[in-house]
Design a protein that fits this description.
two-stranded antiparallel sheet; 2 strands; 57% helix; Pds5; 2 domains; cell division; elongated; mainly alpha; nucleus
Length: 347
């Protein structure tokens, strides 16, 4: 089994060294690469890692990273996100290449509102993978400005139509980035506050408001001194934003309706302050959209899996995203580069 997997990795890597000009053939090779990478556990055996090197080198060619077709670029980034997962906590490439890759990853997030497109589910999978490997810690070391661009991208693209597997990874990435930051810039504070600004106009994005408010709630201890300094230096008024901002800055005791959680994976109370009137639609601002959480979850809290780890068997991963690879979980094997590989959960 492992020998077949190694041979398939090397064969695909050789095929991608000189990418075919035919779009359909290139899509096929990239899809096969993604499947192969998807089923590899973190910290693979030396033989698997040796076979992996072939794809690792060929996938970062200029022809692929800067391909004119957006769907092809998303396929390439999907492969790269799996390589980052497999090699974590080590980085698969040097700083300059990683910086370029992370910029491509953030660019793919801009399409998370394009739910009907071919590449949408790949974009979601990239988002989930990046949340699990805590890639924001690396981005902070390479380019803190990219974190701000990513936050802004999340607020601009999140929609009611997105499911929980988009909302939660966004929230997780933003919380991790804030908690891992040694210093929080005014620009990042402005980005966060823009999502929870009171506005009587209807163009306010209610789900972005919920996302921003929950991130601020869960990182209130880290954000408090920066929020206070921001308002003191900028002359802005706290009451122009969600009441949680005023509560944090005044260090008042948080009310019982609010459950603050430090880590993704705890019970979460998601009811909003019933007395808060923020100029956005009341139903939208006081409870997450039904596309994100069910009524039962909204009333009783969302039970999340505390045992979710960065290394996840294919059965566990497919449970949350059954349509990423159609019927993959039902297949006994898959043929990649002319080699049949049995599909089974990684140990």
């Amino acid at each position: 089994m492992e020998d077949l997997h190694v041979n398939a990795l090397k064969a695909i890597g050789e095929c991608l060294t000189t990418p075919p000009s035919d779009m359909r053939a290139l899509c096929t090779f990239l899809e096969e690469s993604h499947i192969l990478l998807f089923i590899i556990a973190q910290s693979p055996s030396p033989d698997i890692y040796d076979g992996l090197k072939s794809i690792m080198q060929s996938i970062i060619s200029t022809d692929l990273l800067e391909h004119f077709d957006e769907d092809i670029r998303v396929d390439v980034v999907a492969c790269l996100s799996e390589i980052i997962r497999i090699t974590a906590p080590n980085l698969p490439y040097g700083d300059e290449t990683m910086m370029f890759i992370f910029k491509l990853i953030v660019e793919t997030f801009r399409g998370l509102n394009l739910i009907s497109t071919r590449s949408y589910r790949k974009r979601v999978l990239i988002l989930e993978t990046m949340a699990k490997v805590k890639s924001c810690n690396v981005i902070l070391d390479l380019d803190s400005q990219l974190i701000i661009r990513m936050f802004s991208c999340f607020f601009n693209t999140i929609r009611h139509q997105n499911e929980e597997n988009v909302f939660s990874p966004m929230e997780m990435i933003m919380i991790d980035a804030i908690e891992a930051s040694h210093d929080i810039s005014d620009e990042l504070i402005r980005c966060l506050l823009s999502s929870v600004k009171k506005d009587g106009r209807r163009e306010v994005n209610p789900i972005a408001y919920v996302l921003g408010k929950r991130v601020i709630e869960k990182t209130h201890t880290k954000l408090r001194p920066y929020l206070i300094a921001f308002f003191e230096s900028s002359g802005r008024f706290q009451f122009n934003y969600s009441k949680i901002v005023t509560k944090i800055c005044q260090n008042t005791k948080l009310p019982p309706w609010l459950t603050i959680v430090k880590e993704f994976g705890s019970k979460l109370s998601i009811a909003d302050d019933p007395e808060e009137e923020d100029g956005v639609d009341a139903a939208a601002s006081h409870e997450p959209p039904t596309g994100i959480f069910s009524r039962d979850e909204s009333e009783h809290g969302l039970e999340l899996n505390q045992n979710e780890t960065m290394v996840h068997p294919i059965e566990s991963r497919m449970r949350f995203r059954p349509s990423v690879f159609d019927n993959l979980e039902k297949m006994k094997g898959v043929t990649v580069a002319g080699v049949n590989i049995n599909i089974k959960p990684s140990e």
